[in-house]
Amino acid sequence: MRLLLSCVCCCALVSVASAQQQWVTVKGQVVFPADKQIPQPAPLKVEVDKKDCLAKGAILDESILVNPKNRGVKNVVVYLRPDDDDLKTSLAANEIHPADAKRKPEEVGIDQPCCMFVKRVTVARVGDTIVVKNPAPIAHNFFWDTANNGTHNPTVAKQTDWKMPNALVKEPAPIQYKCTIHPWMSGYVRVFDHPYYAVTDEDGKFEIKNAPAGKFRIVYWHENGVRGGAKGRAGELIQIAGPGATMEMKPTDFDVSPK
Q: What span is annotated as the signal peptide, if there is one (predicted)?
């Protein structure tokens, strides 16, 4: 009888502890430093399939996109990780919002309508599948070489799609993909094993929903590097406040110029 009461008491404590976890929406903006000149996208050198690739005008370099109106930086991947210097550490199960358990794997599309990848920066979850679309009147190629997600190099014929044969697995490093037919075409995929990530929009703004309240790290990744350099890979300390709040962060300076 004492053993039974002990188990009931233990289960009740676990239930209360779980109910006390608070979830917060974290919002912010990544901006280009005020003391630096905003980079201007330059036309790319197009020497293959000019007629089709340049049908809508010059193709501009999208490696750095800064909004001149508010200095917001586009295509920065912002994500949370544990408060730990070990990059292999993952978030605990009780730090993932319960609703995430209902999430089903998705098909993540990468388009190439006019000799540029759309989106240039793609985020996905473990279990998702990449689908490469080619609505263009010319053939493209999709090449990537990864540690954990294989090497692929298919030719994607005009107005067809190509689906990656395997679902994505965890890949800590960013994955760069290219079109070897049109060498100026490039993009990136980040694969996460949790839901706490976002990509900044045209104004440099991001939103991470249902983040756990507590002490974590936040990472700002751009294709030209990580905010804070090598040390920034482990992230910057963030205290996420609850309960049920929307946490508005101050604008974050990030010089995304090539290092």
A: 1-19
**CA neighbor of 115 nearest in space, from 176, 187, 67:** 187
Residue 51 inside a domain? The answer is: yes
Instruction: Answer yes or no: are the C-beta atoms of 170 and 125 closer than 8 Å.
Output: no
pLDDT tens readout for residues 96-128: 999 999 999 999 999 999 999 999 999 999 999
57 Ramachandran zone, left/alpha/beta (phi>0; psi -120 to 50): left
Least confident of 20-24, 118-122, 195-199, 211-215: 20-24
Using the 3D structure, point to which of 194, 217, 232 is the last residue of a domain. Answer: 194
Token pair belonging to 89: 């550490």
Supply angle C-alpha 218, 222, 226, rounded to 5. Answer: 55
Q: Which two tokens stand for residue 23?
A: 């979830």
d(CA 28, CA 65): 17
Q: Is 4 contained in some domain?
A: no
Q: Are 218 and 80 in contact (CB under 8 A)?
A: yes
CATH no. for residue 224?
Answer: 2.60.40
Q: Is residue 16 part of a domain?
A: no
- Quote the CA–CA distance of 237 and 156 in Å, as a whole number: 43
pTM: predicted TM-score of the whole model, two decimal places: 0.91
Q: How far apart (Å, rounded) are the C-alpha atoms in residues 72 and 202? A: 7
What CATH number corresponds to the domain at position 176? 2.60.40.420
Domain with 240, as residue range(s), is 21-97+200-259
Q: What residue type is 26 in one-letter code? A: V
Q: 91 with 109, same domain?
A: no
